[in-house]
Request: fold
Amino acid sequence: MSDPAITPALIKQHGLTPEEYERIQGILGREPNYTELGIFSVMWSEHCSYKNSRPLLKTFPTKSPKILVGAGEENAGIIDIGDGLAIAFKIESHNHPSAVEPFQGAATGVGGIIRDIFTMGARPVCSIDSLRFGELTSPEVRRLFSGVVAGIAHYGNCFGIPTVAGEVYFDKSYEGNPLVNAFCLGVLRHEQIARGAAKGIGNPVFYVGPATGRDGLAGAAFASQDLTEESAEQQRGAVQVGDPFMEKLVMEACLELLATDAVAGIQDMGAAGLTCSTCETAARAGTGIEIDLAKVPQRAPNMTPYEIMLSESQERMLIIVHKGREAEVKRIFDKWDLPWAEVGTVTDTGRMMVKNRGELVADIPAKKLADEAPIYQREAREPEYLKAVRAFTLAGVADTQDAAGNLKTLLGWPTIASKNWVYRQYDHMVRDGSVVCPGSDAAVIRIKADSLPQDGEGKSATVDKYIAMKVDCNAVYVYLDPYEGAKTVVAEAARNLACSGATPLGSTDNLNYGNPHNPEIFWQLRESVRGLAEACRAFNAPVTGGNVSLYNQNPNGPIDPTPTVAMVGLIDKLEHVTTQWFKDEGDAILLLGDVVDRNDPMLGLGGSAYLQRVHALKTGTPPRCDLDREKELHLALRSLIYSGVVKSAHDCSDGGLAVALAECCISQQIARETPRLLGAEIDLSAFTGVRLDALLFGETQSRVVISVSAVQAAKVLAQAKILGVPAAVLGKTGGTALNIKANEGTLSCDLRELHDLWWNAIARAMA
Amino acid sequence: MNFAVLQFPASNCDQDAVHVLRNVLGHSARLLWHKETSLGNADAVIVPGGFSYGDYLRTGAIARFSPVMQAVQAFAAKGGPVLGICNGFQILCEAGLLPGALIRNRSLQFRCEHVFVKAATANSPFTSQIPDGKVLRIPIAHGEGCYFADAETIARLKAQNQILWQYADAQGELTDVANPNGSVENIAGICNESRNVAGLMPHPERASEGLLGSADGRLIFESLIHALESKSVAKAA
Amino acid sequence: MKAKIIITPKKAVLDPQGKTVQNALEHMGYGGISAVHVGKYLEIEVSGDKETVRKQIDEACHKFLSNPVIEDYKFELD
Reply:
């Protein structure tokens, strides 16, 4: 079979512009052949090169004394957590594959991010996921949702990694464009950090893991274009299939091999498979690499060089081994019954040379391919729709007449409702480290000796650390005000960490947007990156890496701009770990922060869940977050937690104060079918002159509901005052109902009913 | 005491079992690779949770043929105590060391949640230290944990007091709502006729420390340790 | 030759998968369905004397490929 001729149509089909093609000719000094064209097309896709977003990504804060491996250096960033230990973490999207085949798309997304973590030499210890779908009233959306959740469960559960937290939003803009962002965190000692560099001229290059097939051919390029029926159909023939059992073996073997010091460099074959791993490792080391495709294990007969180089078969790794240590690879991979093959060597040519049965099929300068993709400063224009958003006022919105009914509506909305239907399908407790399981503000895990790559036979029995993490993104806020909305995304993640008792260490973000060639979309991207950067700086949570996923749109339009932020923090002592639910009868309930932002003409209702669900309005300027005040709130909250008085802490976000209070009353689950309900008597009559809907359901930022024992209340108020944070006693815990009294009206709800609506909403929608 | 915790390629609760036995309960515990043919000086064997060999054909179907399981068969035949947890329970059933089988949950979905289980008898090396009437709060995490055996086998299990644990509600009632997977008779775990081999779907190793939310699972390990120390189970040669 | 093996849940065993498929079919308007059983189908490519292969496959089905506690099997060779 001969390769097709390079025509303008073929170049276009590969997603390359005429200018990019000229650049390729310039780099090679000649016409590329078909295989080389394929290689450039995947490496210069947005997914691999960030060609549309790189200038923006450079504005993120990426440095701190604790960062051991920074953003963009390697497959994942690494942060010091003290005592010679470190964590590696990263978030990555698998949106397009999940739209095509939800189960395998999501499963391989989880597999891919786990590989990124153990490639760094870390043992993956937990994962979290951020998911978005259309509304569950659509059968197609239910199919995608249940497929994605089952895929994540399948891969994570079988691999043996707990899925400890996450978020799920449902909004029409994601109909047909589901978002699947998977995060993984691993643990290692400083000296165990592995590098993805092809170091040492003459060192042999090994391929380990299952054979290469035609799966996911050019998936990276597919992910870098709009999702259409044709593009999806093309991919369906080549769905990547995940094998968590294989990945578990590959991980254990790789960690065992890394412990021998035989490894000079290691990289997983993710997007763009063999292509990306060979040219990137060579580019990082400033070396060249030569491989022979005839030696690559192949699953299908008659695969062409083009197909082998672009395949995205899963669970494969590229390992560069110090010359003379080849036997160790063989010994360890044979022990784990894994396929391996020596496929090439590191050279001093600076070129990526690919041979097939002696014939040279690709010859490209590695560094130019990996690092010199074109960079675009796209045109940006403020979107038209923002005019109407800013012009919107509450004047035409009548205050609520049925606060209790509104609360039930909100608690039963799948976006706010309990996500137990999702996380009960995930093993969230394996590895014996889940201190706070899904269902509180942030997950908390314990790091212990066996969290490290070596199982710690006696060596590190005293390891004992607590890591909190959370992923957040209220994309409606970002849609309605990209800059301010993005700030609140980061603020909410940091607030969730503070509520659990943690101090941020760093963050990783996944920028999900529509097509950047549309100036209005690019404006959303640019403005929200500005907000993210500013807020990450404010909370001292530098970005250690992440992923950009553009072209999330189908013929019906783009998604809401969705920069999901996963933030990771450290909790010094076990006693500081705090959960969101009320603990004891008779405790005082306090609000830290202002009950409502009176400077906000929308009183916190812009873009709120309340306006969306009760008035069917997705508009209004969303609440703003003053980063300085927010920081003060977190400092004060942590200081109160450290002093030992805080029994529960829960942030006010979607659905406002009423939803936050209800969640404090109903969210503790003792066991299957056994919630622990603890009521509250709330008196808001001191807050005069505020509409009832704004008071109960407004989403003013920088607020946290805490509970403390009644005798401590006055002391806590005084302490909050010293710390410069507004605080007020709202009421006390007790009883079996949530009763709220305000000047403009009252609300009274039986907790059993609220719990049932909230706990079972998604299960009912899926039945 | 010396515990051997089996390690199949895709075991994933193996280290958790070692952690609890070693660091929480202070006993010696080591991992035993599936290709091993000897249990060494083990006083008891734990077959941990996970997916053994990927479990693509049937849970535990391949594991029973592994070299280490031949050693476990011999050990159990001599009266050595063996405890299978989750996938370990599935393997012991497949291997014929325990009667019955574990099939797909009736919800068809994987379930990870805390459940309540009640010991049906104190007369076993795995339940002797559980106070009478105590309801244990222990997590489950499985997709195929629905215990099934034919009516005759169930009758025999009952007659010989081989049902060790049953799913219950907080008050200890064996209700249908408390049953997370559709198991016959709310069975969460059983033992063999000679009472030295037991299996259960809940994970006691995930409920052995207060910081993980429950320490009730320790009672199961402590029962086993008590039995070993008082030599009420024969030490296999 | 090829051994085609069909493994089905025993009639007495709860078969939630079959039940779910049955319900879905009924919802979709397919009438007259009294039971659905979801099983497994395996194809094994094997060579040798037909009678010997038959014995081997039968033994493998009994010992390993099916679990006689919960499953029945049947196979054909061609």
Chain C touches chain B at residues 9, 12-14, 16-17, 20, 64-65, 67, 69-70 (CB under 8 Å). Strands of chain C lie at 2-9, 40-45, 71-77. The radius of gyration of chain C is 16 Å.
